[in-house]
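2 proteins. here.
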Amino acid sequence: MKTSMHKSILLLLGTTALLSIAGCGSADDPDRGTSHVQNLSLEGVVVDGRVARAQVFLDANGDYIRNPFESYTFATVAASYAIEVNSHQLQQPGAVLRARGGIDRVTGETFHGILSRTIDTTGIDLTISPLTTLLSYMEPTQVNSFRRGESKQLDPQDDTYLSLTDLHADLSDFDSTLSLDRRVHLLKRSLQFHKLADVAEASLRELYGGEAIFDGQTRAANGSRLPRDLSGYLYRSMVEVMMEPQFVQNIDTQDILSAMVDNAAEYLAELTGQDEEAVSSDFKVQVKAMWDFIDDLFDATDDTLTRDQLESRTRAVEVIATVLRDAADANIAAASIARLNALDVDSLGEATDVRGLAAHLIDTSGAGPDAATFLTRPTIDLATIDRDFSLSSDESATMLYDPESGTLKLTYEGEVWDAEVEQVNDYTVLAQVVIAGIPQNVLIKSKADGDYDVSSY
């Protein structure tokens, strides 16, 4: 399903540096040699569930990589961000806001993927979400086509039921005036699109070389650097399929979902200069099973759904996405969904050990505790923290509690640093330590077995 968009995007990525040089002093610093450059303030919130401490940056050249000349900031634990951006960089072709990394406040898990937002205005909140990511790859006429199609999903007689404001809304803001049916439908679509991008990215990454290729340094066939995360290409491929002339706004079919994955595989083959790898039909069937599972969980006609239920069901989706991400070759999506449904998905509260439950579903041996065991975990007691873990550089370090100062400290190569600690909830703590000017972000979670998981993110 190769389209002309493929070639134009590859050309854009390969020539961005030249566009930066024109009127600028350097490809490495587009501002050098310019005058009368203004900084603009942008602010908003990162949402896929609220994403705490995500890195938000202006991707001035559209390469999915934060280059040294591009502004960046970190969202707060509450997921809000404020960033100063260069007005000249905003005018570069393909310039968008990106958000990556961080912790999903609803699931307590590391956020996977890259979210995007077209910068269309200043002075108002700019939500960055899965839906704004999808829209960022569309032309204005395509956005309206998508809006009308989704409107008719809610009201077949009214293709204006959803507004552009609705599509850009913070769906986690339950104090907003967004109606419940709109919120539930858009949350469903957000989860479907992003989890498709998430699990397909993990599968395609391995098909095309894994971390050895997608390391942020290796060059693509067109000379641009290959990013570490490929989910942006998945979103782009989804839009390409949906905007084909023969597409009739019925996303929820095996053929359409398979075409989205195949389109991304073709795209990555061209990008990396490799032969196209075939994506297994079993994997595509599992993607469809996950998509249908999300569809069943979020029924926009159910006017009794509460915030707690929506968040519990979001955790259930993350469990299944983790199963597919970690064990796509096991072909256990349908069985995992059945076992999860047997628990009652509305029982997956804030105390749920999402990753532990996913690992339990992956283990089909029947050994170990009951699945219900993973619905509760102890609250975090910082005074008991003393764990070895790996830094982002894969070097070993230790996070431990210092009773004299009453804080966490990180020990690395015989030196000790104070950690800045922020609590997401009773079960999840974020810590940051700056070593040689490089921030090390650490996630500390309690587990259902009473232990702690300490890891870099």
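next one coming up
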Amino acid sequence: MRRVILFSVFMCITLASGYAQGKVFAFFEYDIREGMKASFINGYAKDLEWQQSQGDDWCWAGWFVLNGDRRGRFIDATPDHTWKDFDNWKIDASENSRHNRIHWLPYVENPSGSYREVMERYSSYAKKWYRSKYLQVYYMRMHSGEVAGSNQFLSDLKPLLEDKLQGRPFVWMKTVSGGDPDTYLLFVGLNKLEDLQLCSELFREYSSGKENQGKRAVKEIISELWGYSDKLSLFPGRK
């Protein structure tokens, strides 16, 4: 699909960080042109059908941003890869691009994308967490160069999140290519909007505690809510 440009950038990525060699996500984002959402949804769904007919064995999850400054933006991702996978996608790149142009590219603008690694040590990773009805997403911007402080922050925060979120999955990711490397993302899987109350003042207990290197590493926190779209997702051979 929309991933061909990013795949060509892959060879420029360093693999030194190695947070989770089996849990790398490629994300792709678009704004939908005004008045064209229905056309986009129908075209994108047709494109998924075409991919499936070509034997695509990758999974794809799709979401719409439901609030915040980016409300209405469409995001999709292919999850749980090794880095090597991105050199071996079985779909023909030129045919993929041609079908993109036929099915849905005319209805979008402002494309972007990124590769992100799961930071599994600091996460509560559940199978199919990205298929939760909602994802509360936090963009955690750290002060540049504060690697030790950032790691302490994530380590200290994990037991607090486990307690506060009452068993809901939460996953940390770090951007490797296509974004700010000092911004970490926290995804919290929720099944109903009522669960958002668990995210209220999610970081307050940590912020109000004793001053330390981890707390000083955090520069800014922004959140938004994503809504999962089953119609715009593809999970070959899975229910």
